[in-house]
Every structure is written in structure tokens, then in C-alpha cells.
Amino acid sequence: MARKKIVAGNWKMNTVPAEGVELAKSVVAGRSEVCECVNFIVCPPFTHLSQVVEAVKGSDIAVGAQDCATEAKGAYTGEVAAQMIAALGCKYVILGHSERRQYYGETSESLNKKMAQAYANGLTPIYCVGENLEEREAGNHFAVCKAQIEEVVFNLTEEQFANLVIAYEPVWAIGTGKTATAEQAQEIHAYIREVLRSKFGAAAEECPILYGGSCKPSNAAEIFAKADVDGGLIGGAALKAEDFLAIGKGF
Ligand code: 13P
């Protein structure tokens, strides 16, 4: 069976609700120009998740959140529970993004709890891994990604693993305009799949592994052509419907 092809947009802390709704509507409007085989996901800020769910209604575009709380509910001021996200009609949640690891102290310990919350509420996690520049230059990128997977993904049941998306995002390529070469992406994606295979066996062949980091219309096709690259997690280029859709044409 061929793996799912996914193009997911991580809007990060961009767009006010009206802009987000307009962006989502433009994606819906242009969606028919791209192969039906591509699964599009948009991940707006919490504040307009429900309006974006409404805006994509009737299309095959899915909506995801950018994070969720470690706890189910209660006295956790400022947090947003997986149950709340799922109740809006979201299907996905990005977990472990490098910006959250770097700026908000996200650890494997908190991520294990967030993954459990996501699954308990029927959300599919898009679990992010990736090394920073120093780690890449020291040749530690394989070890870093392996640890990020072993410490979190290896705790999943087989059933949970069957409902997981992984995103490899080298920190040095995020928002920098520097993209990993298609060869670099393939090398580490194949490695990540090998790590997954060591724990989950043949099920690893079904797990979509997305590339993220300055992915844009001009480089998507070359990267997506690689055997173990199943799509992209897009930041900056996801903020323009035309570019986001053009990336989908990279398949
Ligand atoms: P850019 O596409 O802006 O580099 O961001 C990638 C990313 O972090 C997506 O989650």
C-alpha cells in the first residue's frame, strides 16, 4: 500500500481570525487544481481553529492545532486541552515542534503526556523531530532524531503508531531560507524509518514522514520525489494559499 501523501501548513503565530478564514477559503478554492491524492492539513492558531474548521467544511482539507496541554482539564491557566481541540472538529495536533522545544521547554516527558492526551481524544499527532545546526555539524543528527523518537514514539501502542505522522524538521532550515538537500532529507528520513522499523516492524512502512524547513514551490518536487519523503510540514509558504497549493503540486 502506498503511504499517505500529506502537505500540512503550520501557520505558527500568524494571522488574525479574519485573515485565517480568508487564507483557508483560498486554499479550499484552489484545492481542485491539485491531485486528490494529496492530503492537505492547515494548522492555525487556537483563536480561530473553529472558524477555520467552518471555512473548510465540505472540502477534504483537515484542520489541526499547533499544540495541546499535557493534562485533560482543570486548573491550568492558559492551556488548551486536546478534548477542546477535538470538540471543534480538528483531526490533528502538531507536537514537539522545535520552536516549542527551544522556547517553551518542551521535553520528552511533557510530550509523552501530550501524545497520550491527543490519542485519548482521537487526534492524530504530527510529531516533530530534528537537530539544530551545532548537532548537524558535529554529525549528531542521527543520534538526536533517534533519541527524540525512542523517548516518545517507542512508548506508543501498535494501534497508536498506526495513527501517527512524523515530521523531520532540521532547526537550521526552519525560516532560514536554507533547505536540506533532497539527498540529506532522504538520508535521514530513511534512517528514521529504520529506527521505527526496529520497534514497530512492517508498520513503519505505512508511517508518513514529512519534511519541514524552508520548503517552497521551487524545491518541493525534488524533495517529495525521494522514496522516504511523504510530504511536507510548511511554515512561511503556508501563509500564501497559492504557494501552499503549489507545494502540493510537487507530488
Ligand atoms: P518554514 O517553512 O517557515 O521554514 O517553517 C518550517 C516549520 O517549522 C514548519 O513547522
Question: Can you describe this structure in just a few lines?
Answer:
With about 250 residues, the protein is an alpha/beta fold.
| Portion in beta strands | 5-15%
The secondary-structure class comes to: alpha/beta
Q: Estimate the helix proportion, in percent.
A: 40-55%
Mean pLDDT: 97
| Topology as a string of helices (H) and strands (E) | EHEHEHEHHEHHHEHEHEH
The dominant shape is: globular
How are the strands of the biggest sheet laid out side by side?
7-6-5-4-3-2-1-8
CA distance, first residue to last residue = 17 Å
Task: Work out the radius of gyration.
Answer: 17 Å
Bound molecules: 1,3-dihydroxyacetonephosphate
**Total strand segments:** 8
Number of DSSP helices? 11
Uncertain regions spanning at least 5 consecutive residues:
none
Largest beta-sheet characterization:
8 strands, parallel
Q: What does it look like?
A:
This protein is α/β, with parallel strands linked by helices and 251 residues long. Helix content is 40%, strand content 15%. The protein is built from eleven helices and eight strands. Strands 7-6-5-4-3-2-1-8 form an eight-stranded parallel beta sheet. Strand 1, helix 1 and strand 2 form a beta-alpha-beta unit. Helix 1 packs parallel to helix 11. The longest helix has 19 residues. The chain is globular, with a radius of gyration of 17 Å. The two termini are 17 Å apart. 43% of the residues are buried. Bound molecules: 1,3-dihydroxyacetonephosphate. The site of 1,3-dihydroxyacetonephosphate has 14 residues, from strand 8.
